Amino acid sequence: MSGKLRNFILIGLGMLAGIAASMQFSAMAQKQTAPLPLDELRQLADVFGLIKSDYVEPVDDKKLLTEAISGMVASLDPHSAYLDKKALKELREGTQGRFGGLGIEVGTEDGFIKVISPIEDTPAYRTGIKPGDLITRLDGVSVKDMTLDEAVKKMRGEPNTKIVLTIVRKNENKPLVMTIVREEIRVQSVKSKMIEPGYAWLRVAQFQEPTVDDLVKKINAIYAQTPNIKGLVLDLRNDPGGILPGAIGVASIFLPKDVVIVSTNGQLPESKATFYARPEFYAGRHLNDPLSKLPPQIKTVPIVVLVNIGSASASEIVAGALQDHKRATILGTQTFGKGSVQTVRQISPDTAVKLTTARYYTPNGRSIQAKGIVPDLMVDETPEGDGYNSLRLREADLLKHLSNDPAQNEDEAQRINEEEEQKLLSNTKKYKPLEYGSKDDFQLTQALNHLKGQPVKISKTKVEEKKNGADAEKTETESNLKNKQ
């Protein structure tokens, strides 16, 4: 995309958005797989010494070595990273559904910070930040010379502190100046409501430690109110993922016990694993199975799962499992394609490395990485098209993304030419953030139509894409199953 919209990050979510659903914390394993490259290490020492002796001003040893480690890990793929004390703390807090910040997903464009989308029920959302806004100044300081990471750190801060954002917005004659009060954000993982008599809507905004318990409570409350549910809509749109047990538990709610939910494959023996719909894979330290008190009807009620380009990682595991077991109809647009496993290895009391260690596979052996889940019914966000989502990046668009093929990694991202981009931008000038679950939610309306046996408005531009994706999946599945054996 000509260098635009790369390296997107969730402000406030810290390092959570886009991390693999399998986040694990473990001690650093000392594993010697090959002799140390002495010549290259000697060069590293020489460069270190040269900087110390010749650089224009003194440089701290710790800073130099920390940056070297960070660069080495970051060069592997978009999701591997060195975590300093602050980043590690934010990562842990994020899995619990608590973190500080503004609540805004951003990327870069032409040296400025571009808003991908505000997160629901956060300071940025309530202040009126919109997708497509360009942030040009933070507290009056231009972001032009800042890296994305530096801008992110400046926007984070202690709760109840203020930051002033200067924003350029399309169709506005002058910059907008907005003051936002930072706060500790507690994302409500699960929402629910009856959208019509007999039809319920369940939304999982992010997979956290409480997600399975919260979803069980919502389902029990729905059935207590309406025992004869005719259909459920499970909404995973713009859900960036989270922890693996949450994904396994959510899928297990709707699937028979003991079926395969997801499998992984990587170099380490422990990365070659299969995860089933059993309490030991989703209940953690629970003494009792949190799913044991669910109404039995939940295993057979008709389900539509809503997904879009913002559905990633854990969301794709759930959608893939329900699709492969033919338990639900997947409706929406192709998902993000975040199908790699990140393991967090502690290297000191306050630091760690988040390293990609495996790929995810659906029960039928389909790789999620750099492809995502292709819906059964391709439906745009609005009757006119997919709006702003047409401009959003997928995993396959990220530089140095891990390829779908274990034998081949790609260094170049996919591009969208300028003419196509301008056409997309012209179609999204009137875009307004959609309130999921509202009466104006076009995809939800189509999901209801499907549950009722009524016609669904299929995206004309996506029909051929779905056909091509299905053909490619058949070939990839055969290849992936062979690679795993």
TrEMBL record:
The record, for Gene3D superfamilies, names: 2-enoyl-CoA Hydratase, Chain A, domain 1 (3.90.226.10), 2.30.42.10, 3.30.750.44
Q: CDD domains given for it?
A: cpPDZ_CPP-like, Peptidase_S41_CPP
Enumerate the InterPro entries for this protein.
ClpP/crotonase-like_dom_sf (IPR029045), CtpA/B_N (IPR055210), PDZ (IPR001478), PDZ_6 (IPR041489), PDZ_sf (IPR036034), Peptidase_S41A (IPR004447), Tail-specific_protease (IPR005151)
Q: Which GO terms describe its molecular function?
A: endopeptidase activity; serine-type peptidase activity
Q: Which GO terms describe its biological process?
A: proteolysis; signal transduction
Q: Which SUPFAM superfamilies has this protein been placed in?
A: ClpP/crotonase, PDZ domain-like
Name recorded for this polypeptide: S41 family peptidase
